[in-house]
Write a structure and sequence with these properties.
The structure holds two protein chains of two kinds. Helix content of chain A is about 70%, strand content about 0%. By secondary structure, chain A is mainly α. Chain B has a domain of about 200 residues: MetI-like (MetI-like fold). Chain B has eleven helices and eight strands. The chains are: A mainly alpha, B alpha+beta.
Chain lengths: ~375, ~375
């Protein structure tokens, strides 16, 4: 007779509150009385916020209509009819109606380039990047301003809406990156005069709010030029935005440069590379790679800051929405809120997807150094 | 050794580049200055800071110090500066409190709470601040009921003219209460020092937090009662179509304050989360292994180390908030950018002086902050072998 069991007993089921949906709720939401209270608080906040928001944006919203009467209904929510009617202005500003296909074309090529660039396994991505940085701006400039190839000229004072927002952001970022690289090199230079000049430049621009820079660009810049010379308001704002973001970009690049070990510089010198070659071939590729996420974050900041050009009288996306509130055809209590929510939604989608992208790049860059 | 030609000598090159940079910069500034002088002569604009003594001739809707249309531009500058500091000060307090609450909630083991905090951060961080300010102002505060139908909570009233609060009016003898508070602050500072000394030498500190809280509230309250409660509240009263008496916060101020604090709180929450997560979990375990209680581990081990990571970016957020308060130029809140770079610039036409003053204020604020930050950093930097 043996009392040794030769088969396993079937495992007993786990105690009810530790598995399944209920178990998850118990562990994550009601693990202790305090935790339960917090969950109730969270549910209360959701109950306060979500149903009214859905009612306002979807259930009670007015989707169709040709004027304010449609949105003056008692208890009406968002007046999406207003957005639908004005969408053209929100996107193109006062850009000549017949020429809007040019803007569409610029948008399309830009979107296609960006989408292809994000596709990491694309062969010869390098050439595409060169196209994006060197050819695309010229192409976009020619298409948008016109004046050659039989395209009628469209004054920049007519530009507006999302177009203007993208123009300011894109010019700001592409021009400020090289400027920022030079400033960062200057700040880390061993030549005291160059270092001093760079430090003063960076700290002064970083110390003042963008709005004062924009005031300066629109009021003071004309005074700095020889009498009689005057240029476009948009160009003045672009100069202000670029000089401003170059200082921030310089600090980002400097962060990357600081993370490069000394040995890399020494190895480059040992190979007989001079300052420029060492930076171009050895240091910068590593440093810039490292700070791509920070560059994207700076870009997000710049993109949000483009809204400020409204204060100096340019009608960017937000500005062209705001200016339409005063249109008597659409004057209704919910018009302003609808316009702002629409603007917020578009800005949020763009900024959030960029920040997700930067998180993904960061993860990919860290892959080589991650230890399991 | 082969003799190098002089243009290959790094020192000669260095000198050359620096001379070139100096000449370029000097040439640039000279050119700009001469153009500017020519332009100003052509436009017949006065120059110099003499205008600060002239009568401003415009009203300012909110001023902490006495101001009228007969006051000078210099006075207007002070009023605007104080308004900037007022909104920045309140904004910093609100944003810090909100940011810490949300940052800690983000790390909460409670799934719902942590997700809610995450949604808050991602939503408000990715919407332009100017849009948020305008939303609060145009879409929320302007749509509030008129004064007669104000929303009421106790003596607090909210309507489309702003937020009305009871105003504390000090009577004779209230000075003693303030003095009591000052003394309490000094006494608690001494107590903190003594407790630190005691912990280092005798092994156990004092319950400083409770003592400080008691001192700071108890002493002023005691003096207040002894001197016979020398303060009363003036509540806002409805007269005709509007309220009078009490304190009123303009809707512009409220919109700016809400938007600034909500926007900055999202960034602060991320900083707080990163700071707390940066403290190695081993530190917690080591503290517990030493026999410290959970709250002491938090207070003596985790928080001091987290603060080292949190404080530098936190101050730069405070600075951002202060600089962002200049967005009030889009509303009519009379702070530095809107009064000075807006109204005064338009009235005097002296763009260079006015903008120089405005920029100098923000610049000195930020330089002072980064100087303080460098001092702090050099004090708390990890001492390694």
């Amino acid at each position: 007779m043996s009392f040794v069991r030769d088969t396993y007993l079937p495992a007993a089921p786990p105690p009810p509150p530790s598995v399944g949906a209920l178990g998850w709720v118990g562990q994550n939401l009601f693990s202790s009385p305090g935790n339960g209270l917090l969950t109730l608080l969270g549910l209360f906040i959701l109950w306060l916020g979500v149903p009214p928001f859905i009612e306002w944006t979807l259930l009670n919203a007015v989707w169709r209509g040709t004027g304010r009467e449609a949105c003056l209904v008692e208890g009406a929510g968002a007046c999406w009819a207003f957005v639908a009617a004005k969408l053209g202005q929100f996107v193109y500003g006062r850009y000549t109606f017949e020429e809007r296909w040019r803007v569409d074309l610029v948008f399309f090529i830009g979107a296609l380039t960006v989408a292809l660039l994000m596709w990491e396994r694309l062969p010869k991505r390098y050439y595409l990047a060169l196209f994006g940085v060197l050819v695309y701006p010229i192409l976009a400039f020619i298409l948008l301003t016109g004046g050659v190839f039989g395209l009628p000229v469209v004054e920049t004072s007519l530009w507006g809406g999302l177009l203007l927002t993208f123009v300011v952001a894109a010019v700001g970022i592409t021009v400020s990156l090289p400027l920022g690289i030079f400033l960062a090199l200057g700040r880390r230079s061993q030549l005291p005069v160059l270092r001093l000049l760079s430090v003063v430049y960076i700290e002064v621009w970083r110390g003042v709010p963008l709005i004062t820079v924009l005031f300066m660009a629109s009021v003071m810049l004309p005074l700095f030029l020889p009498p009689g010379v005057n240029f476009d308001k948009l160009l003045r704002v672009l100069i202000g935005v670029t000089l401003f973001s170059a200082a921030y970009m310089a600090e980002v690049v400097r962060g990357g440069l600081q993370a490069i070990p000394r040995g890399q510089y020494e190895a480059a010198s040992a190979l007989g590379l001079g300052f420029w070659k060492a930076n171009l071939l050895i240091v910068m590729p590593q440093a810039l790679r490292m700070v791509i996420p920070s560059i994207v974050n700076t870009f997000i900041g710049l993109f949000k800051d483009t809204t400020l050009v409204m204060i100096v009288g340019l009608f960017d996306f937000l500005g062209s929405i705001q200016v339409n509130f005063s249109d008597a055809t659409w004057a209704a209590p919910q018009t302003a809120a609808t316009g702002y929510v629409f603007a917020a939604l578009i800005f949020w989608i763009i900024c959030f997807s960029m920040s997700r992208y930067s998180v993904r790049v960061e993860r990919r860059l860290n892959e080589g150094t991650r230890r399991e | 050794m082969q003799k190098q030609p002089p243009w290959n000598d790094p020192r000669v090159r260095g000198w050359f580049f620096q001379m070139a940079a100096v000449l370029l910069a000097a040439g640039f500034f000279f050119n700009v200055a001469s153009n500017t002088l020519d332009n100003l002569r052509q436009l017949n604009v006065a120059s110099g800071f003499g205008f600060l003594e002239h009568t401003a001739g415009f009203g300012i809707s909110q001023s902490l110090i006495e101001y009228s249309e007969a006051s000078t531009y210099g006075r207007a500058f002070l009023v605007a500066l104080l308004n900037t500091l007022l909104v920045a000060g309140f904004g910093i307090i609100l944003a810090t409190v909100l940011g810490f609450v949300i940052g800690i909630a983000r790390l909460s083991p409670n799934w719902l709470l942590s997700r809610l905090a995450g949604v808050y951060i991602e939503v408000f961080r990715n919407i332009p601040l100017l849009l948020q300010i305008l939303f609060w102002y145009t879409a929320v505060l302007s749509n509030l009921p008129r004064p007669r139908e104000s929303l009421q909570a106790g003596s607090f009233l909210l309507n489309n003219r702003g937020l009305y609060m009871p105003a504390p009016i000090a009577e004779a003898g209230f000075g003693y209460v303030l003095w009591a508070f000052v003394i309490a602050v000094f006494a608690s500072l001494i107590l903190w020092r003594y407790s630190q000394w005691r912990r280092a030498n005798a092994g156990a500190g004092l319950p400083v937090l409770w003592c400080t809280a008691g001192l700071l509230t108890g002493l002023p309250v005691l003096v207040y009662l002894i001197t016979g409660a020398p303060m009363h509240f003036e509540t806002p009263e409805l007269h005709g179509f509007n309220f009078s008496g009490g304190l009123r916060a303009m809707p512009e101020f409220l919109a700016l304050l809400f938007a600034l604090s909500i926007y900055t709180a999202a960034f602060i929450a991320e900083i707080v989360r990163a700071g707390i997560q940066s403290v190695n979990w081993g530190q917690n375990e080591a503290g517990l292994a030493l026999g410290l209680r959970r709250k002491d581990v938090l207070r003596l081990i985790v928080i001091p180390q987290a603060l080292r990571v949190i404080i530098p970016p936190l101050t730069s957020q405070f600075l951002n908030l202060t600089k962002n308060s200049s967005l009030a130029a889009a509303l009519a809140y009379p702070e530095l950018a809107s009064v000075f770079a807006g109204t005064v610039l338009n009235q005097t036409g002296q763009a260079i002086e006015v903008l120089a003053i405005t920029m100098a204020v923000y610049l000195s604020l930020s330089l002072a902050t980064s100087f303080a930050m460098n001092l702090y950093n050099s004090r708390i930097v990890l001492v390694e072998r």
